[in-house]
Design brief:
The protein is an alpha/beta fold. The protein is 28% helix and 23% strand. A nine-stranded mixed sheet has the order 6-5-8-9-4-10-11-12-13.
Length: 294
């Protein structure tokens, strides 16, 4: 792992990064029946408007895609935030399973759970990760966040005094260029940088930039409290992300309910409301966009 990272540091001219957080706020038409067409097939209304094919991607999660006006912009970085047991990992496994079964190459980078445990999660919902892996459409790979920390700190020390620093976090096999990537989780990576917040911020900024250059649609998991005041550890993550999806485990008296909200999404309209969702055995997450919570 360390050998991989030693090749990743290079000097580049200083550049300004200006992130615009302008969000399109449009009225959303009444959601229709969930469409399970492949991601390469744009919505009919997109075709009528002459929009380029492949401009938008679907998650394949029933009810969730109808919260979005056109879908997720291809190549966007989406922060998936939630507390323990809120369904973050299932959400990401489900959208990768959908994409892989529709011919996209997908990578699940885990810094917490082992590969076999994640495969078992997929089997619990009726998905077949081994078949997708044999076809070269899915890679599930575990990394040690402390290996990342050691390598990054060594490279930062070597680059001390440089005007600009670039760390290209190439954790991806050389012969595999994914269309979608999941990072599970930023919270686990941050744990390896305790006491080195500046190094963590530099690494996360470079991680977002790397996925952007690669053109992959990325889903980055982060852990939050049950009543969050912030969406991420340092605050830089939601600033860099193109979208933020928050999964809640809401309590009202003796009742808890899983809910979901699209908090932010650049480049397209979306419904701004918290809606119920369920985690169903043999199926996965189902979102109910027309229902009220409680």
């Amino acid at each position: 792992m360390i050998d991989i990272f030693k090749r990743l540091l290079k000097k580049e001219s200083e550049e300004a990064v200006v992130t615009s957080d302008a969000e399109a706020e449009k009225d959303i038409e009444e959601p229709g029946t969930h469409d399970h067409q492949p991601d390469t097939e744009p919505p009919k209304e997109a075709q009528e408007k002459g929009e380029p094919e492949g401009e938008w991607v679907k998650t394949g999660i029933e009810g969730f895609d109808s919260l979005l006006e056109r879908g997720i912009p291809r190549g966007a970085a989406i922060l998936i935030a939630g507390g323990p047991g809120s369904g973050k990992t299932i959400f990401c496994l489900q959208t990768l399973n959908y994409a892989a079964t529709h011919g996209e190459k997908c990578l699940y980078m885990t810094f917490e759970e082992g590969e076999e445990k994640l495969r078992k999660h997929m089997h619990d919902f009726g998905w077949n990760p081994e078949e997708l892996e044999k076809k070269g459409l899915l890679v599930i790979k575990r990394f040690d966040p402390f290996d990342v920390t050691i390598s990054v700190e060594a490279m930062l020390e070597k680059a001390r005094g440089e005007l600009s620093i670039e760390i290209t976090p190439v954790l991806i096999p050389d012969d595999f260029k994914p269309d979608r990537v999941v990072v599970d989780s930023l919270s686990a990576i941050a744990a390896g940088f305790i006491g080195s917040e500046r190094s963590y911020r530099i690494y996360i900024e470079q991680l977002f930039r790397y996925f952007e250059r690669m053109g992959a649609t990325s889903f980055l998991i982060t852990e939050i409290g049950s009543t969050p005041s912030t969406i991420s550890k340092s605050g830089v993550e939601e600033f860099l992300a193109d979208g933020v999806v928050v999964l809640y485990n809401v309590r009202d008296g003796n009742i808890r309910q899983n809910t979901i909200e699209v908090l932010k999404l650049r480049g397209t309209g979306f419904e701004k409301k918290i809606v119920p969702m369920g985690i169903i055995a043999g199926q996965g997450i189902v979102v109910y966009p027309e229902q009220e919570i409680f």
